[in-house]
């Protein structure tokens, strides 16, 4: 933990801004941007819609069984999400919320939306949300969630949800982005929601302090890549909707960057020297998102 914190001055200014905004945050009281909070809507299939704003990409399933959402964004956008669901769902009730992992930009709506809804997640997500949590990289700390905001259905490795005429396969990919990541495969729709196992097209955030590991992350991306086909619609936790070809680009970036950091480590370079040397220039554009190159190198370094 201390080793990663020593290199905080190298973080991109966007990360520093977020760190400052999160330094006094607690559950239900995050202070973030004041931009227009209306959710953007993107039709994925006839009954699947992606909702996006700040925070993770939310996927809505609407049909004869009611509404189901994957992730629910920031706490301060919960009312806006409710409005969007009311508009799209035409008064149908929200039956299920799936949390892909515990981070506040994916579970912030649990408190508001979870009072009359069943929340589903991996076992470790409930454990994380039920106690005080922290992301040291961003100086983020949060209190335990109230009982109604915790997942009431949890699983250790995989489970199925049969909803709106489709079969949702929830699968845990251990120690990737966190220690509680869920990827959701829609069998009939041929859609996969990656949670934060995919940031596209940008370097991913690896929550080293909460069970994440960049090497395992890349290995699990390979597994998922082999399971999808050329017609699969791929929804990243952050970023734009893509497909298997997009995942191939993401996979190549991950594996190449890890190989480069391994090669530098073999030369007995320390982290500061690695960050000074940097990665191959072909990856520069991937560092223009949430995570900059120096921070991405540090994630890999601490995962080896």
Would you give an account of this structure?
It is built from 10 helices and 16 strands. It has helices spanning about 1-5, 15-20, 80-90, 105, 110-115, 125-130, 215-225, 245-265, 270-275, 295-300, and strands spanning about 40-45, 50, 60-65, 65-70, 95-100, 120, 135, 140, 155, 160-165, 165-170, 180-185, 190-195, 200, 235, 240. Strand 10 (about 160-165) and strand 11 form a beta hairpin.
Largest sheet descriptor: 7 strands, mixed
- Assembly state (oligomeric): single chain
**Estimated share of beta-strand residues:** 15-25%
Give helix % range. 25-40%
Neighbour order of strands in the largest sheet: 1-2-3-4-5-6-9
| Helix-strand category | alpha/beta
Helix-strand string: HHEEEEHEHHEHEEEEEEEEHEEHHH
Strands, total number: 16
Mean pLDDT: 89
Q: Evaluate the radius of gyration.
A: 19 Å
**Number of helical regions:** 10
End-to-end gap? 14 Å
Shape: globular
- Which stretches are poorly predicted, pLDDT < 50 over at least 5 residues? 1-36
